[in-house]
Amino acid sequence: MTVPSRTLGRPGLTVSAMGLGCMGMSFAYGPTDDDESMATIHRALDLGLNLLDTADVYGPHTNERLVGRAIADRRDEVVLATKFGIVRRGREPVPAVDGSPAYAKSSCDGSLDRLGVEVIDLYYLHRPDAATPIEDTVGAMVELKEAGKIRHLGLSEVSADTLRRAAAVHPITAIQSEWSLWSRDIEDEVVATARQLGVGIVPYSPLGRGFLTGAITSPDDFAPDDFRRTNPRFQGENFQKNLDVVGEVQRLASEKGCTPGQLGLAWVLAQGDDVVPIPGTKRRSYLEENLAAVDVELTDDDLAAIEAAAPRSSFAGARYPDMRWVGGDTPAKAG
Q1: For residue 271, which phi and psi values (nearest 5 degrees)?
Q2: Which candidate in 58, 103, 124, 204 is catalytic?
Q3: What is the CA radius of gyration of the chain?
Q4: pLDDT, tens digit, for every residue of 95-114?
Q5: Contact, 45 vs 80, CB < 8 A?
Q6: CB atoms inside a 10 Å sphere around CB 300
Q7: Closest residue by Cα to residue 44 from 314, 289, 219, 243
Q8: Residue 162's closest CA among 188, 194, 187?
Q9: Rounded-to-integer distance, Cα 313 and Cα 324, Å
Q10: Where does residue 317 fall: left (phi above 0), alpha (psi -120 to 50 degrees), or beta otherwise?
Q11: 156: phi then psi, degrees, rounded to nearest 5
Q12: Is 58 a catalytic residue?
């Protein structure tokens, strides 16, 4: 398998056409297995996938340490992305957000230490901070770049307006937002704005938190501590409605000779050469299945059939149990 490359942003960060989201190896999706997670990261690098994505809040901190151990002797093979800004304090259902310059700088130092690296290739603000002008946060990130601690600037879950303001301070290499067949908010304004500004797009949860794989058939499939048990899309009538739509995706995938997950990833990849999805997994078998999506070619007729079978309005439920998780900057829509 040969993984093609794509370039994010006008600053020109070249990465594999698909990345690996590492969050679930330590956080949110039930039991973890560090040995298998490490093996999954190594397998990704062996196959030519080089974009690894983590964040300081995953764990918190444990995921960065895991990724750091995994890449300790392979740093030159990795485009390393991490994020700052989400702050968990106690048991509050929705975390705080801190984009202050002082916090940006201290967070970067903490991430560098946990990852065991001298520089972060792509450093994201995880969520915009309503109390801190985006110009101030980006200004602090520019100082981190000038100090040689980061190479490229990114933003996650930002509105078109915030992206424009940020880019006026310094070129933004990439935005990271949820984007998949079942989550298409950013198509309203953000995608077009990113392209006008020359900003790459890194979709997280491109498999709809696993739903688009067709492997989830009941809420009982989740471990007791799995985040998805609290997610509106995986509950009650929403679950069954969404399951019916996934059935249509499965039908089309069967006709195409691929898995439904591969079809969903191929759809994201087909949205443009500036798009690099980062499906998350903590198992080598799923990693290899996901990567095979780069070889699934979708014709215009295929894309039209997918749109007809799973239109934007077809999926039910909000993206999070409390949409404050995406901050005040992103429209709190269901899709």
Answers
A1: -75, -10
A2: 58
A3: 19
A4: 799 999 999 999 999 999 99
A5: no
A6: 8
A7: 289
A8: 194
A9: 22
A10: left
A11: -125, 135
A12: yes
* Residue type for position 196: Q
237: its two tokens: 């009538």
Element (H, E) at 263: helix 260-269
Give strand pairing partners of 41: none
135-189 pLDDT, tens digit each: 999 999 999 999 999 999 999 999 999 999 999 999 999 999 999 999 999 999 9
Distance between CA atoms of residues 140 and 88, nearest Å: 22
Residues in the chain: 335
Give the end-to-end CA distance of the chain in Å, rounded to a whole number. 33
Written as six digits, the tokens of 57 are 């809040």
User: Contacts for 238-241 with beta carbons within 8 Å, 24 or more apart?
Assistant: 238/316, 238/317, 241/314, 241/315, 241/316
Q: Annotate 106-171 with three-state secondary structure.
A: HHHHHHHHHHCCCCEEEEEECCCCCCCCHHHHHHHHHHHHHCCCEEEEEEECCCHHHHHHHHHHCC
CA dihedral 256, 258, 260, 264 (to 10 degrees): -80
